[in-house]
Amino acid sequence: MTDYFGSCLCGTVSFKITGTFDCFYLCHCQYCQKDTGSAHAANLFSQSAKLLWLSGTDAVTSYTLPGTRHQKSFCKLCGSAVPCTSIDGALVVPAGCLDSDIKMLPTAHIFVSSKAAWDGHFEVLPQFEALPD
Length: 133
Known about the structure:
Order of helices and strands: EEEHEEEEEEEE
Structural class: mainly beta
CATH class: Mainly Beta
């Protein structure tokens, strides 16, 4: 078994996940674009891993988009995405909220028919170690 630790941006919410992830999807659906403010969400999924909240459970809130399976949990203080249990019972963990390194690479891009027009060909863009001058 592997333990992973994570937290929200403000540090109020912290958690531990014990177990393994089944898949790691980069989701390009319009719902994920809206709730991340980016081209895609990066979520790890597990049917067997266990989530233990270490702090801030009272700051965690969830939203399910009516009429869909799209669900998101987040810290109500800073807005950071945190793990949630999906409608089908899978643990869904936003990869960016983990403080522990994960060795797993993304399994697949999903909902690419909704991919943002500006998403792609990033390898040709300049790269900077920090905010450029």
